[in-house]
# Entry
Amino acid sequence: MIQQDFIPKQWRIFSGSALKLIAVISMLIDHVGAFLIDQRIVLLHIGEYTLTLYRLMRDLGRFAFPIFCFLLIEGFLHTHHRTRYGGNLLLLALISEIPYNLVHTGTLFYPVQNVFFTLFWGYLGLCAIDFFREKPPFMLLSLIGMAIVSIPLNADYDIYGFAFILLLYALREQKILRIFSALLLHNFRFAMIAFLPISLYNGKRGFIREPVLKYLFYLIYPLHILIIYLIRLHLVGFAGNR
# Structure
């Protein structure tokens, strides 16, 4: 039997709040790189290998999704108000859709939905697992149905994001094996690195306790995308006037 608690207790220094902060920083790096950085800026060139600033920032951004999914599962396991928790996810997904569409197309339409729809759909999958815990055939059918629906839903990370959340939940006690759930994700090598801070989680809530801080954390997602859109709009307009 593999020892699952392979990280000594004294090394587990990250609270849930610290993990949220790491995920937010990674997300910001990713989105700034995706929408504001010139892909031609070269940081390193050795032989045939070229590292651009754009590629570095996008790779560092791969840490965010696994951490957000881990925190989603922690929230599912510990919340006393699952309906409210899921409702908040859906509300945030709907609010975020406007800036998400604007930053991608400059219009209110974009065929891909933002990542909070992925998190919300994954949360419903966790609820289905819990609801049909004593009826495995119904659980399997419901999850297959949700997986099928996730394809036309076309949310960020697609069906693979939904499957990742379910697999991460199934392997939540297998702290070594769960690392390989990242194989479902794009650029999985960097996604796997996200399990290092996750493994240092100490089970504590941390400094984000008050409702104001909690909801501010949620609002960071649509707000930062809106700011990036406005900056991009200004830069494009500035370039057009030169």
Remarks:
- The chain has one domain: 9-241.
- The first helix runs from residue 16 to 36.
- Residues 66 and 113 are 18 Å apart (CA to CA).
